[in-house]
Every structure is written in structure tokens, then in C-alpha cells.
Amino acid sequence: MKVIHPFEPVYSTESKILILGSFPSVKSREDNFYYAHPQNRFWRIIASILNVDVPRNINQKKDILLNGKIAIWDVLKSCKIEGSSDASIKEPIVNDISKVLDITNISCIFFNGNKAFNIYNKYLKSKLHIKCKVLPSTSPANAMWNFDRLLEVWKKEIIEELG
Questions:
Q1: SS3 letters for 46-84?
Q2: If residue 98 lies in a helix (H) or strand (E), which one and from where to where?
Q3: Known catalytic residue: 40?
């Protein structure tokens, strides 16, 4: 089924890093915000890195991102997708990432998993010249990575970039 990304990026002019996912899960599309699946570890990881409480609602999520100088978005504007499966993505249309990069202080794009990175490389890399790093996916489908191992890698990379 063809799906259009239902919500906007989160960023401010003070944002220093951008975290890109591939496309919102079914649960995220239902809740109208990023990483809404209860088993996705994204919000626990970000809260741990920034040393704040895990956010419980959209406003709290936006606040910790903006206070932490972190922007988030997804690489895809629309695609055909079955459920939440990145593997099923077809007919991808990418977002215009430059609209965020042009008005922020972003020095690095982090990818929440390989699918987002692969899409970026195929459709956007030649247009955008910015440092990029792939992080292991926080998705519950990435069962090879437990929370502590994810946190260790994410924290090292993000803290290094945020200074």
C-alpha cells in the first residue's frame, strides 16, 4: 500500500545532529510521531544519552530532542510498504533533507539502521555533502542488539558529535 509520511521533522536552528530513520512504523503512523512502538528502544536510548527521564508523550519527546540539539526525521516521504517492514519498501520517494540542513547547525547525520543509510546513499548522498554514520537499529526487529549494547554504541557516537 502506498503511504505518505504523516508528520514533520523535529528540529531547531540549534540542532547539531540529525537522526534519520527509514519510514514510520504502523504504530508510529497511528500515534502520529516517531518511534511509537513500545518495544522500540529509541526513546530509552536518547533519554539515557541525554541523562533525562524517558519521555511519555509527544511534547516531552520533542522537548528532549530540541534541548539536546538533536533533530529527527525519516529519509522517505512516501513509499509502498507492507505493515512496518523495511524489507517491503518499494517505489521510495525521498524527503528533501536539505530543508533541515540549510537552517540548522547539523554537522553529522546518523542513521537508525542500515535501510535508512542505504536509501540515503542511493538517492541523496550525491546532493548532500555531510558526514554520515550508521548506528544499529533501535527497532525490536534488531534482536541481535540488546539495550546495553545499543546504548554503548549510540552514546559513544552521539556524545562525540554533540561535544
A1: HHHHHCCCCCCCHHHHHHHHHHCCEEEEECEEEEECCCC
A2: helix 98-101
A3: yes
The terminus-to-terminus CA distance of the chain in angstroms comes to: 42
Kindly report the CA angle at 99 between 18 and 139, in degrees rounded to 5? 35
> For residue 37, what is the DSSP state?
S
Q: In sequence order, what are the residues at sequence separation of 6 or more whose Cβ sits closer than 8 angstroms to the Cβ of residue 156?
A: none
Task: Note the pLDDT tens digit of each residue in 91-150.
Answer: 999 999 999 999 999 999 999 999 999 999 998 887 788 999 999 999 999 999 999 999
Catalytic residue among 32, 40, 112, 146: 40
Q: Quick check: 96 and 123 in contact, CB under 8 A? A: no
pLDDT per residue as tens digits for the range 26-35: 999 999 999 9
Is the CB of residue 154 less than 8 Å from the CB of residue 135? yes
The arrangement of secondary structure in 2-162, i.e. its CATH architecture, is 3-Layer(aba) Sandwich (3.40)
Contacts of 117 (CB under 8 A, 6+ apart): 111, 132, 134
